[in-house]
Amino acid sequence: MLGTHGSLLMALHHQWDPKRFLATGTDTELSYARWLRSQLGKPGVVLLVAEQQTTTVGYAYASLEGYDYMALRGPAGVIHDLFVEPEKRSQGIGRMLLDAAIAELKARGANLIVLSTAHRNEAAQRLFATAGFRTTMVEMTLDGQE
């Protein structure tokens, strides 16, 4: 199920900006699930699943990372993915996943937590702002010559 959610997350981003974000393919769900499985058990990895009546309705993937000179930051907890099925949104599931990911990263020693969100994902930006996140970077993309 997490492969399906990861594929839906990719498809949503691609829909917002097909020149910037990867398109999904026939093997995206399996590849995404395989990749997430490969992260399990690694030190610093946080993978949380939200369920309603034994059905997976969302997930969060985060990790503890060291210095990143390309991002100009020191060690931090990084929230990479936060996804809730579209029909389950606005029920507080995303906030619960976000709060749980933050708590777990802090429990593992993160003093700084960062995340990125698509420019057009205003709902997620509002969620992150209500949790105390502030804008610190803006990614800009220059498309290749056509």
> What is the makeup of the main sheet?
4 strands, mixed
Strand order in the sheet with the most strands: 1-2-3-4
- The CATH topology of one domain is given as Aminopeptidase
User: What number is the mean pLDDT?
Assistant: 93
Helicity, in percent? 25-40%
Question: Your description of this structure?
Answer:
The protein is α+β, with helices and mostly antiparallel strands and 146 residues long. It has a domain at 43-130: Aminopeptidase (3-Layer(aba) Sandwich), CATH 3.40.630.30. Helix content is 35%, strand content 21%. The protein has 4 helices and 4 strands, in the order ααβββαβα. It has helices at 2-16, 28-39, 93-107, 122-130; strands at 45-52, 55-65, 76-84, 113-115. Strands 1-2-3-4 form a 4-stranded mixed β-sheet, with helices on both faces. Helix 3 (93-107) links the parallel strand 3 (76-84) and strand 4. Helix 1 (2-16) crosses helix 2 (28-39). The longest helix is centred in the first third of the chain and has 15 residues, at 2-16. The radius of gyration is 15 Å and the shape is globular. The chain starts with a helix and ends in a 16-residue tail after the last helix.
